[in-house]
Each structure stands twice: as C-alpha cells, then as structure tokens.
Amino acid sequence: MMLCGSMYFKKQRRARGNGVSGHKETVIPNELPLVQEVTTTLREWASIWRDLYVGDRREMFNSVRDMIYDLIEWRSQILSGTLPQDELTELKQRVTSKIDYGNKYLDLDLVVRDKDGNILDPDSTSTVSLFRAHEAASKQIEDRIQEEKVYIRHQSTPSFALFVTLKNVVCKIGEDAEVLMSLYDPVESKFISENYLVRWSSQGLVKDIDQLHNLRSVFTDLGSEDLKREKISFVCQIVRVGRMELRDNNTKKLTSGLRRPFGVAVMDVTDIITGKMDDEDKQHFIPFHCSDLTDNMSYSLFPGLWVTLKLLPGDIHQIRKDFPHLVDRSTAVARKMGFPEIIMPGDVRNDIYVTLVQGEFDKGSKSTPKNVEVTMTVYDEDGKKLENVMFPGAGDEGILEYKSVIYYQIKQPRWFETIKVAIPIEDVNRSHLRFTFRHRSSQESKDKSEKIFALSFVKLMRYDGTTLRDGEHDLIVYKAEAKKLEDSSLYLNLPATKVELEEKGLSTTGKGTHNLGNCTISKDSFQIATLVCSTKLTQNVDLLGLLKWRSNTSLLQQNLRQLMKVEGGEVVKFLQDTLDALFNIMMENSDSDTFDTLVFDSLVFIIGLIADRKFQHFNPVLETYIRKHFSATLAYTKLTKVLKNYVENAEKLTEQLLKAMKALEYIFKFIVRSRDGLIDWYCMFPADCREILLPLMTEQLKFHLENQEELEACCQLLSNILEVLYRKDVGPTQWHVQIIMEKLLRTVNRTVISMGRDSPLIGSFVASMTATLRQMDDYHYTHLINTFGKMRTDVDFLMETFIMFKDLIGKNVYPGDWVIMNMMQNKVFLRAINQYAAVLNKKFLDQTNFELQLWNNYFHLAVAYLTQESLQLENFSSDKRSKIFQKDGYQASTQGQLKDQLYQEIINFFDKGKMWEEAIVLGKELADQYENEMFDFEQLSASLRKQAQFYENIVKVIRPKPDYFAVGYYGVGFPSFLRNKMFIYRGKEYERREDFEARLLTQFPNADKMKTTTPPGEDIKTSSSQCILTTEITVKTARRGLATHRMYQFQYSRPVRKGEKDPDNEFSNMWIERTTYTTAYKLPGILRWFDVRSVSTEISPLENAMETMQLTNEKISNMVQRHLNDSNLPINPLSMLLNGIVDPAVMGGFTNYEKAFFTEKYQGDHPEDQEKLDKLKDLIAWQIPYLADGVRIHGEKVTEALRPFHDRLEACFKQLREKVEKQYGVKTLPAVDDRRGTRPRSMLRSFTMPSQQRPLSVASVNSISSDNSPSRPGSDGYDTHTERHTHTQRDTHTHTHTHTHTERQTRLFDKWGRPDRTSRMGTSR
User: Fold this and answer.
1) For residues 877 and 109, what is the distance between their CA atoms, to the nearest angstrom?
2) Has this prediction a pTM greater than 0.85?
3) For FRET with 513, which of 12, 350, 472, 1110 sits at 20 to 30 Å CA-CA?
4) In the beta sheet, which residues pair with residue 525?
C-alpha cells in the first residue's frame, strides 16, 4: 500500500563490468513510475531554478516556479491514493504534459511516451516507432509552445476573466458567516458563474487566518456572448451561521449552526466587463441590503464590503502565465456555469450544477409555516453516500452534505442556491441526488426531536442512457417514516419527477395523495434546476443513439440523419467517439453502400463544425485523430466513391457538393491516411505469402529510390515493413530482414548520403536505415561480411558507410534533445562499426590488400564517435547522467569503462616516461569520478595511493634533464614545411649536441652544418642549398608547480661586448643577448618537435651579475634542503659546490662584481641602477647563511679522510663571512627544524628572499669557453623545483656513474684533500 508522502526504497548492488572490482549501490524508489519521474524532474528543475534566480532571470524564474509548484501538488495528490480512476488518469495526463512542456522550455531532453503516458522503453520499441514517437512528442510540445507564445484572441470570441480581491467586509454580524460572490445577469435573472465562497468568523476576520490579505478569485470562461449582455452584476450574499434569530441571547437553549439569510450586496460591473473602466487599484465599496438588521449593527450606518475588480484576457492557463503577480496557485477559480465559447483541447470537465430553486410545504398541524431546511446528498444505487463530491463554492473543499438556508416561517421558500457536483465518470450512471426536508426549531430541545418529514430524489442518468436534462425539474416529495426514507431501495424504483409520474398515468393535480409502496406522494412541491458541463456525459439521445449504434441497427439511418441536427457543442465534446462510430459503420458494412452517403454527409457536417470559429480550436484534435487514431484502411474507396458521385451529379446535388467542397481538405486527409493504412495488410499475410511478396516490394522500392522517385511513399512503406518485422507475433522474419539488407541497405545508405539536411524526409530515412541495422542479427552480419573483399564495390560500400556514419554523428539529423533516439542510433552504429572492423582486420590489413583510404575513414569515424558531444557524460548534469545510465546502461557504462581504461593506460605510460605531473592531473580527474559520481571508494583508494607514489617520485627519483635544441632549416632546398623555419627539438636522454646533430644530418645527408650562432642572411635563405643551424637552448618558465613540467618557452643566450674592454674585469662590459622561443605546443607532446617564433632581448652586465648570484644561492639552498631531507645522500657534490664558492683562489668573480659595479664612478654614471645595486648586495649577503648551513652539514657528514679538506673549507668560509657581513649586513634563516621535510627551494625561497629582492628573470647564458660548457651553475635555466633539482643532480651527482666524471673526481683530491681548480661553482669566469 502506498502511503501519502512516504517512500520506500530497495537497494540493488551492481558489480562494475570488465573485471573491475568493487560494487556500485543504486537506490531504487519503490513507487509509481510517474511519481518517480516527477521526483527526478523536480530535482533537475530545482537546480536550474536556482541558477535562474542567481542570474536574475525573473520571468523565466517565475514560470519555472509555477511549474514546480504544480508538480509538487499533483505529486501529493497521486501519492494520496484517494483520487477516482478517471481523475487519476486525467491528472497523469496533466503531469506528463507539464513535464514535457517544462523540459522543452528549459532546453532539457525530450521525453517520449506511450499512449498511457508511460516513458517508452527503447529496448522493447521498434526504431521506427521510436522515431515516430519522438516526432509526435516534439510536434505536440511545439504546438503548445506556440499556443503559449501567441495566445489566439479572436475579436468575435475572446476569452477573459474577472479578477476579484476581497479587501474587507464592513459589518459586525456577531456570528460566523459565509460570503458568497458570483456574477449575475439581472435581465435574464440567472447566475452565470459559480460562487466564490469565503468563510467569515464572528470576530470580523476571515476564518482561515492563512487567507488574511489573500482573498482573491478569478471568474473565468467569459466570452463574447457575455460582452453582449445588457447588464452583468457582481452579487455578494451573506449567510450567517448560528441562531435562528439574532435578537435571542439565551444561547444555552437555542439551536446553533443554522444557515440564515443575512444580506446581499450588488454592483453593476458591465463597464468593467466591457473594458470601459479599468482601474485595478481602485477599491469599490458595495453596500449591503440586510434582511436581519438588529441592534448589533447599529454601530455602522453603511455596512458593506470593499473589493477591487480587474478584467484579465485569456483563459486560466494564459492568465496564470501573464499575470503571476495576481493569479497564483492560491487564487480561487470560479468557472462559468456552462462551457466557454472556445473549448480548448484537453479541457476535460465533468461538473453538474444543481440549484435549489423553491418549494412549498404544508404547515400540517402547526399553527405557522415550517422552517424548512433542505439537506442535499449524493448516493449510489446501493445506498452508499459519496464523499467530497459537492462544492458550495470555489475556494472551498468538497463536503459530504449540503444544508440549505432556512427561511423563518415561510410557506414557499425560494432558495436559488447553487451547488457544484463533481462525480467520477464511472459512478455517474449509478448515482442519484437525494433531498431530505426537516423542520428546524429555534429552541434546541425542540429541534432535537424534529425528524426528516419528507424526501425527494433524482437520478443523474436517464433510462435512455443520457444525462439528466438541463433546466428545472419538479420533483415529487415523498413522505414516509424517517427510517424508511433512509433506505434507497424503497424509493429508487419510484418516479422522481412529476413528468415521470404522468408518464406512468398517475395524476399530479388531485387533492389527495398517492400511495406508492412504503412511500406516499405529498402535496408538497420542490423544484430544482440542473446544468451539466461535461465532456464525458451527453444529454442528446440522438448522439447517444449514434455512439451506441450496434445496440439497435434498425435505427441507424435515423440516427445518422439526426446527428446532423445535434447542437455542435455537444458533437465536438465527443469528437473522437463520433468519428470512430462513423467509420465503424462504414467498414462493418463494407459489402453495402447503404450508409456510405449518410456517413459521408455526417463527416462533412462535423468538418463544417470544426471550421466554425466557435470550435476552431478543435482543429488540432481532428488532426491528431487523423494522424494517430484513424485506422479505416478501406475507407478511401467509399469516400472517393461518394465524392465522385457528387461531382458527376453536380446539377442535382448542388447543396451537398458545396458543403463537401468546403470540407475537401480534411476529406482528402482521411483518404490519404486510409491509403497509407493499406500498408498494414502486409502483416495479415502468412509467412509463405510474404516471402513471395517481399522481394517484389523491395525491387520496386529499390527502383524508385535509385531514381529519386516517390521518396515519401517509399520511406513510409519501408518503415512500415520494418516495423511489422520487428513484431514478435508475425512468425519467422530472419529471411525477410536478409532480403531488405541485400536489396535495400546500400540503396538507403546512398539516399541518406545524397539527401540534404533540410529535407523533411531525412529523419525518416535515417530511422529506416538504423532500423535495418538494428534488426540485423549476427547471422545477417556474417552473411554480409562473407560477401566482402571480392569486388571493389565492397570497399566502396564500407567507405560509404564509414563516411555516412561519421557525417551523421558529427551533424546529427535529430534534435539534441532527442536523447533516446540518439542513444539508440549510437548503439546501432557502434555494433555495426565493430562488425565492420572485423572485416577490415581480416581482409584489408595485409600488404597485398591494404586499403589506406578505407582505414583512414575508419579511424576518422572512430574518433568522431568517441568524441561526439552526446557521449561526453562528464559534461552533463548528474540527473541527466543518471537518466542515461538508466535508459542506456549498456552503452553508457561501456563508454565509462572505456574512458576509465584509457585513463589508466595513459597514466601507466606517463609513469613509464617519468612524467608523473601529467599522471597526477589525470589521476585527480579519475579520483573525482570515483568519489562524487561512481561512489567507488575501492577504486578511489587505489587511485590516491598511486598519486601519492607519483608525488614521492617527483621529490626523490632523479630524472635526467632533457636537452632542447633550436634547429633552423635554411635554403630553398628543404621541403616547404621546413624551408626557412625554426623548430624546437627535445633530445633523447643523455644525448649530446654532437650526437643530436649527427642524427639530424642522417635525414638530410646533403645539408651543411652552420658553424656560427648568428642567424643567416637572405643570401643563404634564398640559395638552393640546405643549411642547418643547431643551437642548444634552455627552458624558460615563470611558473612553479606541477603544471610546469611541460614547456613551451625556451631561451638561448650569448655574450655581447659593448664599449672598451677592461683587461682586469670582464664583467663591466659583457652584455647578454637573449632569444626567447615560443613553441606552437608544449613539449613534450605528441611530437618531439614543434615550430616556433622568437623574440630577442638584451641583459645588462649588472643584471647578468644579479642572475648569476641568484642562481648560485638557489643551488646552495636546494643542495642543503636535500641533505636535510635525506641523510644518506653522498657528500661529494656538496664538497665541490662549497669549495668552489668559499676558496679564496676562486673568489675572483665576487671581487670582480665589486670592482665593476660598487665604485663611485659606476654609481655616478648609472644613478638609475641604484636599486639593482642594492639587490646585488643583498644577494651577496644572503649567500652567507646558505653557505653556513652547507658547511655545518658538511662537517657532520665528512669522513676522517677528508677532515683536512673540511678544516680548510671552514677557515675559508670564516674569512668570507667576516668580510661579507661587515660590508653587506647579516642575514638569518629560520631554524633548521622548521625547514626539514619541506619541498626543495620553493618553500625556502618564499621566506628567505622577499619579492623585491628576487632577480628580474631566471635565465642562463652560455659563455664562450674552450669546452663549450655552461660558464656558471644553473645556466640551464630549469626553473621548476623539480627540474632545477634534476639539473643540479645531473651537474654534480648523476655523472658520478660515468667514466669521465670518475676520472675528474680522482683528479679533484690530492693527499691534502684540495679540490682541482677546474671545479668552480658560483662565479663566472
């Protein structure tokens, strides 16, 4: 049992496929599918609604809000489980319509449904049916959007409503009261609308405090006929609920809860209705005419009520959209008592209005007339009272029974009280209205003894099956014992009205009474009036006779003639049933033409009705009927026969022909649809007959398609054949599908390829092609594949297929919101691609049969398929991803697993290539998927462990620094893509420049290697020779972190002398010319080389000195930090680094800086460099604490054999420290423990070197030296902590594994432990 507002869940664990371990838990709500859909839709809309609010898109925000509120309320109603079946069906229709419209309005995916409103299952639906369902759903929604955008307001038949706000009731009644407002025609003396009911408390406020300041109602369905009314009044009646007389104060002994007339207020609203007056802010005061004035009202001379009135154009749906600030979900809707002039399709209504008109009751033994109270209830034929089917007014809920107003001692009370009765359609024929009469006394003690003294009743359905007639009914008043009056079986077989009594031959005018069983007919009288407003119930016996024509075929001709006399409004309400009856009559009498002309004329009559302006909104209903519901396959023969007869006998049948001509458009639509229906004959033949017919049909189809003839008919026929073959009840179909595959598959493919995207048939042909492929099983593919490879046409077929698939994937013929159709197409294409791939491997891969273009097309198709937008699930919302997994779990999960596998494989390759930074980026993406989308925590754990290993590798594993080379190809002898262009190459591991150049020249054996570093002139560029210029370059990057391991900017620096040469100091006039190269793509990449553009700049001698000091300090810092983090590192690199800096023998560079820049002459000539000079001094001062740490660590780790060397190192450093701190100040680093375990260089730099003390750039310069080696440490310019770390190790540690470095190490230390002068670390020569 479904409980209101509660939801039960069951859990389903689904193992992830393809061998991946772990489970995925899916929570499945155990509720109605529609409720589940509403819940999912609300979640999706709510997210969009929030974005609309944030984006201040108010109009759209309000529209979505209204739709969300509607769905929430309707969901609650469905979950309540209290709705009758017909109301539940109607509500489901409204819910699905709202969801579909809202999805389109918000650019979400289209939902396709079956005839019951359930979402179509694509796996059990044929491709053709799925396509047609998409078409129909899309058109239906587009039609509704157009109606919403352009609301049709015909001048002759406008639809509008009166909006009323009740501001206050100025009248101290002293008891609870009912305020009933309605529209009234004073000329015709009849109410034209339902009541709007507000319950007022005795304290002078609305009884429902939630409605305070929100008493609003809209009187809808008004039309042009109402504009023509001479007068329209707004009437407000007040009925107090309490004592019989207000003047009685002894409340303990008085009867309470009696409905008594109190007063009425009337206002002429004709000018407002006709639009002559329009002021929605104006408050109108309407005075009361009271029937019960007492001293309680003496405080006010002018009792009345205050209201505002405004005319609103449109029906209720349009009003809610156009005036959301006035009419919202809390606004009461009082409908017109009667149908609106424009009956919108889907406006399902089943209301019966019952008015208590008047009565006359004998006083009996009493001295005064009775105080009669009428109680109205609804019972079924078993005597069960129907609950909540009576509504006293809009704004109020359904009630169990209705009690009338009591007129005090009035013999002939006139009530004119109207109640709306809304009974489920399936219960109407079993229901009746019951009226009981009781005398009410003002004294409570007497009132309790009063019993029901009489009863009247009336059945809602007449004996002939029609509904109770509109108008007044004079009911018979029966008397009997009170208990007997409660037994419906005692009176239901009696006549209910005086008309029925007369039909039985009994007089109604005699003075005496008639005894009928246990009841006696009283002389009392009671009249009611009824009005049926129903799209389900007909009051017309002629229409009913036609709808039930099989029950009495002898009256069929009479019923057909009478149909054309039925009022049009009654016919259009039953349009589909009437049309079905007409065509059933025609088809079930196919051997006779007796009824053909009458059916044709009736059809013309109905089409003429639809053409009437009053009913033109039923055009979509007629169109839908023809397209979806009309199935009389042979009707065209009879329709054309009658039409032909009218044309041939035009002189005699002028009137009939004229009417037929006006209806010709729809007559032809019926004829054409009937001919299309002939296709369904195919499934009626047994399998052996179809085997004969199908080859003939496919030959005809092929002929017409190849000649581009009758394309629409061909597509329609092929689609219908494929749809029949998809069915499970038509016998074996394998051979039939094979015939279509052999005869038509390639022809249909070519038709699709040649057809423009703007063709209205492209979608149908693609659906037919997809259906063919889908209905091909493994046998069909095997049969098709076995025919390949023998002729060139087979290659052409595959080429055409691959091109077509790629084109359809890249430029889908279906809208983007047709997700189910697109997914279906993807599944079919994927299966076909995999089947055809086997053919490629088997027949077109070897050297003799290799088809380059075919393989090229295949790979282009594969890339297009994998990268198509509809498969990029990570770009979709979580709700959409969930829907796709539910609808296309196989395919979507396949793509998800494929992506997972690809990512894992890519990560493994990055790991193998030691590109851990790239691997971490992809690992983070996977981890996010595992954690937030797939909830696969086992995979998440494995991914995070792998990431942790990559981070550790970055810090600890030594990676060889790759060398980069700038290569220029000059001369017209090179191919055009190389000619006079420069490229950046990434060298192999440990590849020297000489080896790289040799490898390059093997590709161009006739090329000359240029000896200079200067770019060539135009003479070389225009010569016919081939010249190659190779330059070793370094990396430039300003960023730090994981993202900088891939480079796109590189530098080459060369010294340039300016001014007079100073023999004692080479630094004073040595400038640096630096060229920056920017590659088109980052290296490493797909290729090991990319083309570049270059920009040259110059670095002054002072800036060069600053960079040199900066790089030296960073190298010391990195070395120290590595030793702090790893006590097992060898000491030799640290020894060489420190010795090269602190040994006085190599301090020439330091001294040269002082000689060149720290002089009065330089400072006087270059006052603009003062800030840079201060920075250089600061860099020299910062070097001391770095060196101090290095010397201390060296002392802790030095062996006894090298103790003399360390002692000399300490002595040299002491002298250096004293000098620097005296001249340039003392700098202090944080404690060692604070730096231990941090990342190399980057963290140290952040607290040791303020930004204003950092160099202009991190660069390098290659000096001109005999061994072509960098002239100072750090000249590689590798700026990330990882790459600089790697470079340091390469310069000072990794080469210990080479023979060259071992020999050099042997030379470095003699018996005194003194290093070789060739290892100079920290200064330029």
Assistant:
1) 12
2) no
3) 472
4) 360, 476
